[in-house]
Design a protein that fits this description.
The complex is a heterodimer of chains A (331) and B (264). By secondary structure, chain A is α/β, with parallel strands linked by helices. Chain A has eleven helices and 13 strands. Chain A folds into two domains: 245 residues, P-loop containing nucleotide triphosphate hydrolases (Rossmann fold), CATH 3.40.50.300; 59 residues, 2-Layer Sandwich (Alpha-Beta Plaits), CATH 3.30.70. In chain A, the strands form three sheets. Chain A has a six-stranded mixed sheet with strand order 5-6-7-3-8-9, with helices on both faces. A four-stranded antiparallel sheet of chain A has the order 11-12-10-13, covered by helices on one side. Chain A is globular, with a radius of gyration of 23 Å. The relative contact order of chain A is 0.13. In chain B, 72% of the residues lie in helices and 2% in strands. Classes of the chains: A alpha/beta (331), B mainly alpha (264).
């Protein structure tokens, strides 16, 4: 392993085993006597390498295998087969020396104590990680200032908004200067302002401290603005591993446009567009990237539009396109 | 050790976060005393002693025993472990640099400290208010032996609940185990009735198991009885603790690999 390589997996595979039962009361009774099991491969022969200081985005639809990968990299679950090394450790051994070198923030798993204040949790984590007083104070002051959350430090966590709580989670995670930070959907459910603040925070942490960050997100903006490199996962397989810009250049071929009408309108779209949904006063459709201006100009001429929203295409659609059109892994 | 001390502190802080809960907890300690007074008053009737106990020593035994049962709050350990393992959020404990059993031990310590301080205070106040002639031993050795036994008993109960909790890695639903444990513990710790009222053979059999020493024997020691069993009790409890320390370590190591963190 070279000095800069801090995460490496080879042929990493994880298979979950579930039990299945038929619907209805009889199905439940039957399953009491005869239990039927099935397996699902969440991650299959996954090769992955991360260099120190990288900011990597993991993209994929729900159930693609992103969270399973993060759970294996942090040692929460053990792989079914394959090799895995994070900072030179086998994660599932759960050694304290390893745990002190990384942090993980998962959208649905809080380290904060809801009935207490965020400051109480910060004090606990100071002792858990054996952070020296000076480092703790310096880091806490810096992160609190960066997020501008000093007024929320001494109020019960349960009274904080989702955005404020996520900021506190990130501060807790970073107090001990982790070498690697795993983030699973950190901006999910946050408003646009909070999302932007979190993105700014993460960028700063990556650039200033050189913290390696692995991020999973459904938000295109998170990936595009933060991650130079991204990995697309679907059905447990790696579909793409390379530069984020190149991925979007190649596969993000459409813009999503939503128009609202002043009057009841039946929109006639040119053949190049794909209709997503339409009602009397609203329509959403996809326009090929190069033709956006031209087609919109034409639509405005023909219809009395009330409002227009242009968005990036959803990650799910891009993944779908990569999956169906190419099935080629770009290294 | 500083990290476990901080866990004790944060757990204690969590207990006193809600003022109404604290007030009600103090207030309701009176119900135990009233209940004991009415129950044993009816049982004693015109009799001076029952099974060698006077009314005052029986009342004292009951108050001490129910107080000790009250401070033993380790049930929460198995419930929390089971809930988090089934819900997938057990990972919260896997990613922090602390021993999981130690974490739960310290967490229970914080909860127990809360009940110890506030319930003890309340119980003393009610005893004074109701002018109960409390039969409490003045023998320092007996008090120290009882205190040591209470401490070891609390540690053992956390270990037992931790053991039942981690069984959720394999069985997912551990409610049946918890129900069996609750019924067994309520009976064999003498919370329902003093064990001395049971046939001698049953009591002898119970002496092998740790539950006898968790609340029953310390209660007896504190009212000045059964002093000859103190050393054996302390040794036996220590042995059970060492046994469960090893068992829990092995069981956790074997079962935690089954955790798949569903739902996160």
């Amino acid at each position: 392993m070279n000095d800069k390589l801090i995460i490496e997996t080879t042929d990493l595979t994880k298979t979950y085993r579930h039990y299945e039962k038929d619907t209805g009361l009889m199905g439940s009774v039957k399953s009491l006597f005869i239990r039927r099991y099935s397996s699902k491969t969440a991650l299959s022969n996954f090769d992955f390498a991360v260099q120190k200081g990288e900011f990597i985005g993991l993209i994929g639809p729900n159930g693609a295998g992103k969270t399973t990968l993060v759970k294996m990299l942090t040692g929460i679950i053990s792989p079914t087969s394959g090799t895995i090394s994070v900072l030179g450790y086998y994660p599932n051994k759960l050694e304290n020396a390893f745990k002190k070198q990384y942090a993980v923030v998962m959208g649905q798993k809080s380290q904060l104590f809801f009935e207490l204040t965020a400051s109480d949790t910060f004090m606990l984590f100071k002792e858990l990680y054996g952070i020296p007083d000076e480092t703790h104070k310096k880091n806490l002051d810096y992160f609190v200032d960066l997020f501008d959350v000093s007024q929320f430090l001494n109020v019960q966590v349960r009274t904080l908004s989702l955005g404020e709580r996520m900021k506190m989670e990130l501060i807790v995670a970073l107090l001990h200067n982790p070498k690697v930070l795993f983030l699973d959907e950190p901006t999910i459910g946050l408003d646009a302002v909070a999302q932007k603040q979190v993105r700014h925070f993460l960028k700063e942490v990556n650039e200033r401290s050189g913290t390696t960050i692995i991020l999973t997100s459904h938000y295109m903006e998170d990936i595009k603005s933060l991650c130079k490199r991204c990995v697309v996962v679907n059905n447990g397989e790696k579909l793409y591993d390379g530069e984020t810009d190149a991925l979007f250049e190649k596969y993000q071929s459409h813009k999503k446009v939503t128009v609202t009408f002043a009057h009841e309108t039946l929109l006639a779209l040119p053949a190049e567009c794909t209709l997503i949904e339409q009602s009397a006063y609203k329509a959403s459709f996809l326009i090929p990237k190069g033709l956006t201006r031209e087609i919109l100009r034409e639509l405005m001429k023909q219809n009395e539009l009330d409002d227009i929203t242009i968005e990036e295409e959803e990650i799910g659609r891009i993944v779908e396109r990569i999956y169906h059109n190419t099935r080629t892994v770009v290294q | 050790m500083k990290k476990y001390w901080e866990i004790i502190k944060i757990s204690f802080k969590g207990q006193i976060a809600w003022r109404f809960d604290v007030a009600m907890n103090i207030l309701f300690t009176v119900t135990r005393i009233l209940f004991a007074y009415i129950l044993w008053g009816a049982i004693f009737g015109q009799r001076d002693t029952v099974a060698g106990f006077t009314f005052q020593t029986m009342l004292s035994y009951y108050i001490i025993n129910s107080f000790l049962s009250q401070i033993e709050m380790s049930d929460g350990v198995s419930r929390e472990l089971s809930r988090r393992i089934r819900g997938g959020t057990f990972s919260k404990y896997m990613v922090i640099p602390a021993n999981v059993q130690g974490y739960f031990m310290a967490q229970s310590g914080g909860v127990t400290a809360f009940y110890l301080i506030f319930d003890l205070l309340a119980t003393v106040i009610w005893i004074l208010v109701f002018r109960i002639r409390f039969s409490f031993t003045t023998d320092v050795t007996m008090i120290l032996a009882a205190a040591g036994m209470v401490l070891l008993g609390l540690v053992f109960m956390v270990q037992l609940n931790y053991f039942l909790g981690i069984l959720a890695f394999k069985y997912q639903d551990i409610n049946l185990f918890l129900m069996m444990k609750s019924n067994l513990v309520a009976f064999v710790t003498g919370t329902m009735i003093p064990l001395v009222l049971l046939p001698g053979t049953i009591v002898s059999a119970m002496r092998i198991f740790p539950f006898y020493y968790v609340a029953y024997l310390p209660s007896m020691l504190l009212i000045g009885k059964n002093g000859e069993e103190a050393i054996m009790g302390l040794l036996l409890l220590s042995a059970w603790i060492l046994l469960f320390l090893a068992v829990n370590k092995i069981v956790y190591r074997c079962l935690r690999i089954r955790f798949d963190g569903v739902g996160i």
